[in-house]
Amino acid sequence: MGTLATLTALIEHQQQRLRDLREDASDIAGIVADEVWDRFEREIDEYTEDGFYFDFAASTKMGLSATLSGAYDDAFERHVSKLFATLEGALREAAPEVAGFEEGASIDLKGLRKGIRLYFRAEEMIGKAIDAAKPGLLRALFAADPGSDAWDREIADDARRVREKLLALRDPLIALIRQDTETVIQSGRLAYGRWLDDMLARLGSGVAEPDLAAEEA
Q: 116: burial class by Cβ within 10 Å (0-12, 13-18, 19+)?
């Protein structure tokens, strides 16, 4: 186990990392947003590469929303959850027996994410984009016979319009993902910082296990 001085230095180093994270949060959120969009765009291509059937508009919206949600979960885990877990893991390894450290920082990142707008807003935006691509009344009245060349052209044209409308979501979706992700990072940063402050105060007050206090003495 490290000495009190070593442990204190580690905490102070992490406090500086949190101060840096205040500025880095925007870049991290941008990385998350770009990764989510890249995966979402590939899914759009898959849904529209062989034509599009508006009879399946609802299931398409659900599928794309699920893809975006899953992509966000994966990217968030890689770039945000892992960051805090690494910081906390370093302290646990350095001081596994110090009173207060065994509970961990208890940063509820999943709980913080429940309050973000991303999932609801994204599904709404996807649904509106698909609806906006629907053909007019005349096309519905004079639709070509299924299986005909004209019908093939119609569903290909429908797919093109759907794809264009969905790809137009790039800027608003990326902005939404960035904003919500940065909000969670900043909230997590503050929560972890409060925990570090508390731990540093405990050490400064001599609230530590006897073997650590004796080692420092």
A: middle
- Amino acid (one-letter) located at 182: E
The tens digit of pLDDT for each residue in 41-52 reads 999 999 999 999
Radius of gyration of the chain (CA): 25
Phi and psi of 22, rounded to 5°? Answer: -55, -40
pLDDT class of 162 with cuts at 50, 70, 90: very high
> How much is the pLDDT for 92?
79
**Sign of CA pseudo-dihedral 112, 74, 76, 20:** positive
Which residue do the tokens 């409308």 mark? 165
Please tell me the pTM assigned to this model: 0.82
> Can you read off the two tokens belonging to residue 95?
């001081």
- Per-residue pLDDT reduced to its tens digit, 72-86: 999 999 999 999 989
* Structural contact between residues 94 and 1, judged by C-beta atoms closer than 8 angstroms: yes
Residues 193, 107: Cα–Cα separation, whole Å: 10
∠ Cα 186 192 197 (to 5°) = 125
The CA-to-CA distance between both ends of the chain, in Å, stands at: 14
| E-only strand ranges, the chain | none
Per-domain residue ranges of the chain? 4-216
Q: Which two tokens stand for residue 15?
A: 């406090």
User: Phi-psi category of 148—alpha, beta or left, where left has phi over 0 and alpha has psi -120 to 50?
Assistant: beta
